[in-house]
Amino acid sequence: MKKLFVRLLGFGAMLIASAMSVASAELPQYAEADHMGVASCASGVCHGSVRGKDVTSVLQNEYVVWSRMDRHRIAYQTLLTPESKSIAAKLGIGNAHEAKICLDCHADNVAIEKRSEKFQIEDGVGCEACHGGAQQYISSHVDVDSNHKANVSAGLYPTDQPRERAELCLSCHLGTGEKMATHDIMGAGHPRVSFELDTFGALQPPHYVVDDDYKAEKWHGSNIDVWAIGQVTAAKQTLALIDERLNQGGLFPEIALFDCHACHHSMSEKRWTASERSGLPPGAVRLNDANFVIVLALAEVMGEGSDVALRNEVKKLHLAVNKNGDYSSSIAALTTTLNQIDSKLSSVDLSSSAQPLIEAMIRNTIAGNLTDYVVAEQAIMAIDMLLEYRGVREEYSLWLDQVYSTLQDEDNFSADDYIDSMRLFGA
């Protein structure tokens, strides 16, 4: 577990929220299997043991970990707070805890006909919201002859696979064509949405152990692999959202797809600086390209020129959207490049890339290319993970504290202060 929790809690607004990938699994919310309810998993002989066990292939305390420590357990309860009631009232959607637009991400909101007797929407984001409806595998997955592949065939969602896991998490923590924290919702008071697969996974208490049994049947890779795949998947999902949701048919596009801080700052504060990556003039509202920018650093380290193509295509996308041009061709080109980078991740060894990645992000920050707030928060989460991966995080703890301090208040973020703190790396 990373020593990251305290820092990110002081990192300003809590980073909470409520793909265009090659994954074959359908998201649990839309798959065919019935959802049996959290109570079906909570028995002490199933996943409700108070203490983890080491004589079985799983800990069997997964329900207890979720119910006591995992923030997903209170996702539905959040809808009962005064803040959520205020948001719902402003949107005119009735009660937040009954509105589909809220339940789609704050609960396991499967269709009524797929809810079995023990199912309760009040359980929030429970077991089957991530692991898939248990109708077919609830009995078979405990058989001694059963294996992970068979369970997946029976409806278990393959959360061990990082791309599928990223798609699942991003379906709420970024959005899809079916559900998304739109600008209307955020304008009514919903927090800004931010996510990074590896870091957010580390912030939740693990309810599994990557031991020999796990490795024998499931994908297992390093934090740097999970981070890289998560960033590329997020970039592709961002493109999908631009393609599906940018043009709403009215005067304004879906503004949630743009960088919040391009507009949300004091009129007297002149934040605009020339950006080679976007090529946009003063006053232009730029897309939220944080994941593209981080993938650029990854592509730069991976080599083979994919960073050059990605950089050019991101700039073309910015200009096309800003000028209401043909951004569909830019999306197609970007998707092709991202798919190429994604395919390389399956064959490249990133174990020696941690330090070059750190240096690339710091170098690009000092050059002024990673200084938007949304990019800065992604960069420091990545650097934090990479230092931990290298086993030297404690040596840089004071430096990390200083960098995080510049990001504590996004409304008063100073790019100059952030750059100055990054210059001190290794000092």
Label this structure with key terms.
mainly alpha; 46% helix; disordered N terminus
Architecture overview:
The chain is globular. Mean pLDDT is 90; it is low at 1-23. Helix 8 crosses helix 12 (223-245) and helix 12 (223-245) crosses helix 13 (290-302). The longest helix is centred in the middle third of the chain and has 23 residues, at 223-245. It has helices at 5-9, 62-69, 82-91, 100-106, 127-131, 137-140, 148-153, 162-173, 183-187, 197-203, 212-217, 223-245, 290-302, 306-322, 327-345, 354-366, 373-390, 397-405, 415-423. The chain has two domains: 1-16 and 158-427, no CATH class; 26-157, no CATH class. It is an all-alpha fold.
SSE blueprint:
Blueprint: H1 5-9, H2 62-69, H3 82-91, H4 100-106, H5 127-131, H6 137-140, H7 148-153, H8 162-173, H9 183-187, H10 197-203, H11 212-217, H12 223-245, H13 290-302, H14 306-322, H15 327-345, H16 354-366, H17 373-390, H18 397-405, H19 415-423
Helix pairs in contact: 8-12, 12-13, 12-15, 13-14, 13-16, 13-17, 14-15, 16-17
The stretches of 5 or more residues where confidence is low (pLDDT under 50) are 1-23
Rounded to the nearest angstrom, the distance between the terminal CA atoms is 27 Å
Order of helices and strands: HHHHHHHHHHHHHHHHHHH
Structural class based on helices, strands and sheet pairing: mainly alpha
Taken together, the total number of domains comes to 2
